[in-house]
Specification:
608 residues, mainly alpha, three-stranded mixed beta sheet, two-stranded antiparallel sheet, 26 helices, 61% helix, globular
């Protein structure tokens, strides 16, 4: 989720201020708080109420009743935290140039640090209960609805420190996470990319949001200028960006070692109970199937009539005649048509949310976070942030993607209790890419036009390329950089660039022209500040391909709907196994890459 914000000097940029955006194009946050004053009142209530947690110190293991009282108190305070945090983060995302929005986030972060410090005794005391007593507690019917959460806490016993040590880690959290804020402020606020003249001779602001639009222009010179001008700004800040990324890796390794994990990667995967073999199988399977990707680049180069192919040539649609403008309302209709196999309720809820309940903040504005995301909290609408552009058809797929997240949240919250509703990112990426697969199938089924089919197949190829091949390259980069830090090697601008260049050479192949600017790409990926996250995009799409084929071939969405209702009631691997996909095997990834190879064959025939 990359972002760029503008200050008052950009008044002539053509990008509206927040005040200039139509209300109907913004999200409605009143289900959270009708006014900022209501948020302030809840924030004050949180300040008053959280100290009651201290009353449970030293008493957690006394009885099942004492444990239940703690859990209910923690739920009350946690749900209040969730609500105030949700509102503050969404307001900051809509305009981070607003001092009031920044102040809310800062206030809350400081308070959360204090709450984390005070409540740091909870997990160690639960884990200190002896096994026989803990088993007796779980047998108490009063704790039935808490068993899943308690067992997950108990599982962390080997990686939980003493109360005093946990307090120190809680106190240091903000300090060890500061690199993320530095990266965000630098890339979202300070960096300016200037303006570019488009194919119509109109000057347009180059931003992290508009960058993708420029890369889809038919004129290769526009793409090239956008690429070089964009990365020139990153080059001007490359040492600072390398420093923030290096410190992010160091913080990951520090936290993993402090909690007695063998590595930062194993620490990250432990939370979802995902074996390291799943991560390694992904990398090895993708590396073993790079041939179809290289063939696709060769096809793209030939069809576009390029003397050589560069990274900035990989996003423009191969088929120019279907370049089209799709309004946001038209995008909603396309998505709902594609999702009909999921049933009337699913489509009705999503349609109402997008059209009348204003779940979605639709368009770019000054100070708004770029990219797209879905953000939900228990009992509140599952909001969607978009920076929708009607000349970027990929944004229709982005809308379907985020709608998948939001309906996953809606379904889980309706079916599960608060403590079991929150699902992991590993599962989230299945629901989102599943929707994209249904959209692709729907659009292909709606046309017999050879050119349109070529366009849609090209789009699916680019989706698999970007989600499986590209995210796996990112995942391998994270594996390499963290291993370097754990081995005591220096993480400098030069070593980071060298590591990334090696991966570019492998994943793009010998016939691809790699510009030196692309070595800086690793410095602009915000997901690297949530390490070992991106591999879930690749596994998620692979699972989604399998699930979508099940639904479309059988006409029965029961197992899929059961999956999105399951929330966090089980770990990801068994949850997906129940839905019909075994991610402990490389088979789903291999099947997705076979689909890619078949689509390359079909596109070659269509464009022959």
């Amino acid at each position: 989720m990359l972002s760029l914000f503008f200050d008052k000097d950009d008044a002539g940029s053509g990008i509206p201020t927040r005040a200039e955006v139509r209300t109907e194009d913004t999200w409605d946050l009143t289900p959270l708080y009708a006014t900022p004053a209501e948020w302030t009142a809840d924030f004050a209530r949180l300040q008053e109420e959280y100290p009651v947690l201290a009353e449970f110190r030293g008493k957690v293991g006394e009885s099942a009743a004492a444990l239940l009282a703690l859990l209910k108190c923690d739920e009350r305070i946690s749900r209040l935290i969730e609500k105030v945090h949700h509102y503050a983060s969404l307001r900051c995302a809509e305009d981070s140039s607003d001092p009031a929005n920044l102040a809310r986030e800062s206030q809350l972060q400081n308070l959360l640090t204090r709450i984390g410090e005070l409540s740091s005794f909870v997990t160690p005391e639960i884990q200190a209960i002896d096994d026989a007593t803990f088993a007796a507690f779980l047998a108490d019917p009063a704790l039935d609805e808490w068993c899943n959460r308690l067992e997950k806490i108990r599982r962390l016993k080997a990686h939980t420190l003493s109360a005093a040590e946990e307090r120190l880690l809680a106190l240091g959290h903000s300090a060890t996470a500061g690199h993320d804020e530095t990266f965000s402020q630098l890339s979202n606020v300070d960096m300016k990319f200037g303006v570019l003249t488009d194919e119509k001779g109109v000057e347009r602001t180059l931003s992290q949001s508009s960058f993708s639009s420029f890369l889809q222009k038919r004129d290769p010179e526009i793409r090239k200028r956008a690429f070089r001008q964009f990365y020139a700004e990153f080059a001007d800040h490359k040492f600072t960006l390398a420093s923030t990324l290096s410190n992010s890796v160091k913080a990951d390794v520090f936290r993993a070692r402090a909690r007695n994990y063998p590595s930062a990667r194993e620490a990250a995967l432990f939370q979802d109970d995902v074996p390291v073999s799943v991560y390694d199988n992904l990398i090895s399977t993708v590396r073993a199937n790079l041939g179809p990707l290289f063939r696709y680049y060769a096809l793209r180069k030939r069809v576009l009539g390029l003397p050589e192919i560069h990274h900035y040539d990989t996003y423009v649609p191969i088929v120019p005649s279907v370049e089209k403008h799709t309004s946001f309302d038209e995008a909603i209709n396309l998505c709902l048509g594609a999702l009909k196999p999921l049933g009337e309720e699913y489509c009705r809820v999503l349609g109402d949310g997008m059209r009348t309940q204003r779940w979605c903040d639709r368009y770019e504005s000054r100070g708004k976070r770029s990219g797209a995301f879905s953000s939900g909290s228990y009992g509140a609408p599952p909001y969607i942030l978009m920076n929708y552009k009607d000349d970027v058809f990929a944004d229709v797929f982005t809308l379907a993607h985020e709608a998948g997240h939001s309906m996953h949240t809606w379904s889980s919250n309706r079916a599960q209790s608060w403590q079991d509703a929150d699902y992991t990112i590993f599962l989230a990426e299945v629901a989102s890419t599943f929707n994209e697969e249904l959209l692709t199938h729907h659009l292909l089924s709606q046309t017999n036009d050879r050119t349109m089919r070529a366009y849609l197949i090209n789009r699916q190829l680019d989706d698999i390329r970007g989600t499986v091949y590209r995210q796996t390259m990112f995942a391998e980069f994270e594996k390499i950089t963290h291993a370097m830090e754990e081995a005591g090697e220096a993480l400098t601008l030069d070593t980071i660039r060298t590591a990334y260049r090696g991966l570019l050479d492998v994943y793009f192949g010998p016939d691809f022209s790699i510009d030196t600017e692309l070595e800086l790409e690793c410095l602009r990926i915000p997901h690297f500040y949530s390490a070992f996250y991106v591999y879930k995009y690749a596994t998620g799409l692979s699972a989604a391909v399998a699930l979508s084929e099940q639904v479309l071939s059988s006409g029965d969405a029961t197992r899929y709907l059961g999956f999105i209702r399951s929330g966090g009631s089980k770990f990801p691997i068994p949850t997906l196994r129940e839905a019909g996909v075994d991610m402990s095997s490389p088979a789903p990834v291999e099947a997705t890459l076979r689909l890619f190879a078949r689509r390359v064959d079909e596109l070659e025939q269509l464009l022959a």
